[in-house]
Design the sequence.
């Protein structure tokens, strides 16, 4: 009796296990569709490519920014240099005008001193290469070797109606100033151009006349 019962229980358990296995096999679905995975992989690859592209663009933009910053610095330096040049030119121009006005007045005093035979004034204003010859009433100019190369006779302003500076040139580096004057003679009805006089001044301890020629 016990043996029959054991066989029966074993058979029932077998049938139950067999039914459960068969039931589970009916509910499982094989994984055969791989399209979703491939799509995810492809999308991931595209994102990686976009990231690399963005990195390249970012690197290029950073290089462009560096170039623009360098160009901007160079431009600022050029602007500062240009401004400094303008300031220097303005200063030189102002110095030139001041020097021109001063030497224009000095030239007129020289003309007047020759007219007045003021040898003392002339001796105080000429450079070392010019000798004031009071007896001959001349300004004798000598070269570097001491040789006489030009003699300028005193001018008389009795018949001169007008003296005008026609041109000038200032060499800042050499500190040499050249100016030319025209003299007009005659009465109120008949004016005559009496030629020109070129004066050269050099700066030593002060501005001095180093040459005067017609």
Sequence:
């Amino acid at each position: 009796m016990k043996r029959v019962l054991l066989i029966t229980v074993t058979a029932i358990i077998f049938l139950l296990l067999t039914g459960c296995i068969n039931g589970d096999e009916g509910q499982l679905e094989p994984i055969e569709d791989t399209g979703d995975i491939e799509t995810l992989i492809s999308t991931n690859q595209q994102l990686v490519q976009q990231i690399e592209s963005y990195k390249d663009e970012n690197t290029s933009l950073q290089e462009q920014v560096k170039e623009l910053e360098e160009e901007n610095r160079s431009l600022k330096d050029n602007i500062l240099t240009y401004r400094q040049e303008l300031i220097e030119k303005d200063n030189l121009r102002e110095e030139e005008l001041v020097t021109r006005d001063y030497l224009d007045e000095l030239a007129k005093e020289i003309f007047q001193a020759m007219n007045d035979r003021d040898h003392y004034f002339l001796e105080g204003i000429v450079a070392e290469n010019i000798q004031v010859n009071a007896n001959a009433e001349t300004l004798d100019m000598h070269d570097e070797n001491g040789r006489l190369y030009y003699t300028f006779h005193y001018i008389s302003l009795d018949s001169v109606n007008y003296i005008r500076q026609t041109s000038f040139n200032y060499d800042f580096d050499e500190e040499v100033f050249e100016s030319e004057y025209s003299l007009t003679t005659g009465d109120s009805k008949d004016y005559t151009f009496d030629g020109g006089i070129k004066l050269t001044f050099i700066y030593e301890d002060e501005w001095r006349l180093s040459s005067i020629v017609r």
Remarks:
- Residues 1-9, 19-28 have pLDDT under 50 and may be disordered.
- The CA atoms of residues 143 and 156 lie 26 Å apart.
- The two ends are 164 Å apart (CA to CA).
